[in-house]
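seq as requested:
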Amino acid sequence: MIWTDVASLNWGSDRQRDAYQALIELDIFSVLAEFDPALTGTYPLGLETETSDLDVVCHVEDFDRFIALVEAAYGYFDDFHIVRREKNGLPTVICRFQFRTFPVEIFAQPRPSEEQNAYRHMMAEAALLRAGGEEARAAIRQLKRDGVKTEPAFGQYFCLEGDPYVALLAVADMSAAEVADVVLQARYLRRDAGRQPEAVGEGR
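struct tokens:
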């Protein structure tokens, strides 16, 4: 299921409520409706900081049409720019601009939105937080306050092996029981190593 229920942000933190208002004013989910937009990243998870982007992924086959629509709708905002590149083996268009205090990024690939890495990372992170509870959420927040990016923060705290961006894709395919095992194993590893959560995974 594609996460588009931005209304739930209006019941969250001050920053989440501000993000909700920004998304409503930008009308992103209506403007980009034909491209199955989905909000990803830290806001749906309640892990946002004051500098967090509003990240939206889209499923796009016709990039020329997508670019023309985005330029017409948002091209007049500060710092607006579009780049085309290949990412994860797929042609990709990334649009960025500034709306009030929010950096906005719209990420488009010819892949269903819920199959894109950013969306799958978010679903994996949500599963880990459900299994890890408030202790895990607090630790991830602290790592982010310390300047660690979201995926590496999850990799560190949950002792995921290797590249956390890759490891989280594997977690996204796990059952709830398998995710619970990952969380339990991480607790054992942190205890046995005698480390603070924020130190786990240093050197990755």
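The beta strands are 38-40, 54-59, 78-87, 90-99, 102-109.
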